[in-house]
Amino acid sequence: MFNTDNVLCGTHGELWIDDIEYQEVTAFKAELTPEFGDVNKAKSMAKHKKLIGYELKGEVTLNKVLSFLMMKVAKNLKKGKATRVKIISNIDDPDALGNERIVLYDAILEKATLADWQSKQIQEEKIPFTATEWEILESI
């Protein structure tokens, strides 16, 4: 049986992009998905699998406070360049059994939303990304 106080709460999450802390972050997701190829095998009707790679992608959600990331991506795109960054995520709930901290390297910010707003709505910015490398710095 586990103590419910030990369940991590996202309210205690922190995010840095290129060593700048983004306190306006409201959500962060990074998912690592293995890719498999089909392997045929004699005398077997089963579909066998072989690991052939992985995909690392996710999304940052921010309260729309500044245009910094939008400008960074937009300026790079005008130059024909990808926006590559380092992302560090940390969730450190004081009630939990520890914290989880990861770093993503070679992350490419994939979108710059130039405008997206509605009357009487709190504005958010969602930035999808892909990355090629990661390191788990702390885990529970």
Automatic annotation (TrEMBL):
Source domain of life: Bacteria
InterPro entries the UniProt entry points to: DUF2001, XkdM-like_sf
One Pfam family recorded for the sequence: DUF2001
Protein's name according to its UniProt entry: Phage tail tube protein
Organism the protein comes from: Peptostreptococcus canis
Lineage summary: Bacteria, Bacillati, Bacillota, Clostridia, Peptostreptococcales
